[in-house]
Design goal:
5 helices; mainly alpha; 137 residues
């Protein structure tokens, strides 16, 4: 006649699991922070913008400056000294991502990621930097 009713709980469980699997990406997108922006006012400097947008950051200003410049090249004048243009809208770098990339033990920009203790490795240098080194037999 019909399908046995014993499969009903399995079908309902499948239905709920499918709904859950489809809903998880939506919740993940809703939980991710929206990109923050800042509109440059006349007289603003990059350091002033950093103090306003990331006042409690443990990162060095140099790191924060580089992150702003990399994410917003259109907001700076082309000729040195590079200055902020009034009215430009800056994308504020995600502070958590910056912390993760610079505060991970053994990580340093240009580093291969492996913890070497101290000093430097010739693996981090290109051949042009080493071509004038003195070679011993």
């Amino acid at each position: 006649m019909g399908e046995p009713t014993m499969n009903m709980p399995t079908t309902t469980l499948r239905h709920w699991l499918c709904c859950l699997v489809l809903a998880v990406p939506v919740f993940a997108l809703a939980a991710s922070p929206a990109p923050r922006t800042y509109q440059v006012q006349a007289g603003d400097t990059l350091d002033k913008v950093i103090r306003k947008t990331m006042p409690d950051s443990p990162l060095k200003f140099e790191i924060l400056r580089n992150a702003f410049v990399q994410q917003n090249p259109q907001a700076f004048t082309k000729a040195p000294p590079r200055a902020l243009m009034a009215g430009a809208v800056l994308n504020v770098p995600n502070h958590d991502d910056l912390l993760r990339s610079y505060m991970v033990p053994g990580y340093a920009p240009g580093n291969s990621g492996a913890h070497r203790g101290g000093g430097y490795s010739t693996a981090d240098m290109n051949m042009n930097e080493r071509k004038n080194w003195v070679r011993f037999p």
